[in-house]
Write a structure and sequence with these properties.
Layout (H helix, E strand, L loop, with lengths): L2 H6 L46 H14 L3 E5 L2 H12 L5 E5 L4 H11 L5 E5 L5 H5 L6 E7 L11 H10 L3 E5 L17 E5 L13 E5 L2 H14 L5 H12 L1 H20 L4 E5 L9 H7 L6 E6 L6 H8 L4 E2 L9 E4 L1 H4 L12 E5 L5 H19 L2
Parallel strand pairs: 2-3, 2-4, 4-5, 5-6, 10-11
Antiparallel strand pairs: 1-7, 6-7, 8-9, 9-12, 11-12
Helix pairs in contact: 2-8, 3-4, 3-7, 9-13, 11-13
Bound molecules: pyridoxal-5'-phosphate (PLP).
Length: about 400
């Protein structure tokens, strides 16, 4: 089956019973009744407690396994929880972690605040360096390298298979934040990455109404570690949310196509505007990292950034405040278009880059791109008058 068909017809979880509706039951429950005394302690043959998931969770995990070509997938209450959970599952006191400097900001916060307290040291690397230069930063204590491609806010691309291979050669585990690729546009496990993590809150959910995260792996030792981490931390997700994520998966392919096409149309229009210095979108020919995107990804989503011409303070805010259709808000992957000013988030980076002006991130939703262009036109007019040109 082609990827789009697999999303509609994922494999059924083993042992899934009940009436033959197209979708799984929203089975709610803490207590699970077992048939006899021996079954009470037979975790291999029976689900013995509801915390680890019932029918909808099993169906979602089976579908996500298929999506990521994984042996096992764990569910977490949010994308941040999935990142934290995967890192906690593989790291221990005294270990070092190599982290992309362009990682999602809360990932960095978890490393600097929580992992540090447990004796794990995080070293940030410049993701634009060649893979062998990044690999050269792996030392005897390096246990794992974390990738995010494209990077949050500024969309730097990484050579994923080369970095995964360098890590494997040195006995270092590789993990990636695959939220931009949504598990559908990029298949990290096929490229040699050990753990693929995504925030299902974004495109899989697709409707800005629920939180969840997932971590996928193939190696039996890794899948066991991830599973043990979820059990030990007591993480659990609601059956309704698991059901909602499975519903989102059915339409992921068509939604991503529309987000991707509209985003390219808007990005190309922005490239023609004199108020815009650069459009940071890896699917644009000639953009930095375009060749890596073309080699490793099967498409693009609706998230990219633009750089406004250098302007006095307040001009970026004038641009954002003039937008009527784009909402001003964090997160992305839902049906709606959103915009944020990125500059305040860039100050924490170790390798700060001058992008040539104010960095604005756009999420292109499912609206008609002509309406979005008209809205951006309004924003740019406000930017021009605020910048006094
Ligand atoms: C939003 C996001 C996350 C975190 O997801 P939540 O479900 O909101 O916790 C992780 N990584 C990236 C790249 C994100 O954009």
């Amino acid at each position: 089956m082609k990827p789009a068909s697999r999303l509609v017809h994922p494999p059924a979880p083993s042992g899934g019973g009940g009436a033959a509706t197209v979708n799984p039951a929203i089975q709610k429950g803490s207590t699970v009744l077992l048939p006899d005394a021996a079954a009470l302690y037979d975790d291999d043959a029976y689900v013995t407690y509801g915390r680890n998931g019932l029918a909808a969770h099993e169906a979602l995990k089976a579908a996500l396994c298929d999506l990521e070509a994984a042996a096992a997938v764990e569910l977490y209450p949010s994308g941040v929880a999935a990142i934290a959970g995967a890192l906690l599952a593989v790291l221990g006191a005294g270990d070092e972690l190599l982290m992309a400097d362009t990682a999602y900001k809360p990932t960095r916060r978890f490393c600097d605040r929580t992992l540090a307290r447990f004796g794990v040291r995080t070293l940030y690397y410049d993701p634009t360096l060649p893979p062998d230069a990044i690999a050269g930063q792996m030392g005897p204590r390096t246990r794992a390298i974390f990738l995010e491609s494209p990077g949050s806010l500024s969309f730097e691309m990484q050579d994923i298979p080369a970095l995964a291979a360098e890590a494997r050669k040195r006995g270092v585990l590789s993990l990636i934040d695959n939220t931009w690729g949504a598990g559908h546009l990029l298949k990290p496990l096929d490229l040699g990455v050990d753990v693929s993590i995504q925030s299902l809150t974004k495109y899989v959910g697709g409707h800005s109404d629920a939180f969840m995260g997932a971590a996928a792996a193939r190696d039996p030792d890794l899948t066991a570690r991830l599973h043990a981490g979820v059990i030990d931390l007591g993480w659990s997700v609601a059956a309704e949310d698991a059901y909602g994520m499975l519903r989102g998966l059915r339409t992921l392919d068509v939604r991503l196509k529309r987000h991707g096409e509209s985003a390219m149309a808007v990005a190309r229009w922005l490239q023609t505007r004199e108020e815009v210095v650069a459009v940071l979108h890896p699917a644009l020919p000639g953009a930095p990292g375009h060749d890596l995107w073309k080699r490793d990804f099967t498409g693009a989503c609706g998230l990219f950034a633009l750089v406004l011409k250098p302007a006095p303070a307040g001009a970026t805010a004038a641009f954002l405040d003039a937008l009527e259709m784009f909402g001003l808000g964090f997160s992305w992957g839902g049906f709606e278009s959103l915009a944020i000013d990125c500059d305040p988030q860039l100050t924490v980076r170790s390798f700060r880059r001058d992008y040539g002006g104010g960095l604005v991130r756009l999420h292109i939703g499912l609206e008609d791109p002509e309406d979005l262009v008209a809205d951006l036109e309004r924003g740019l007019a406000a930017f021009r008058s605020s910048a006094g040109s």
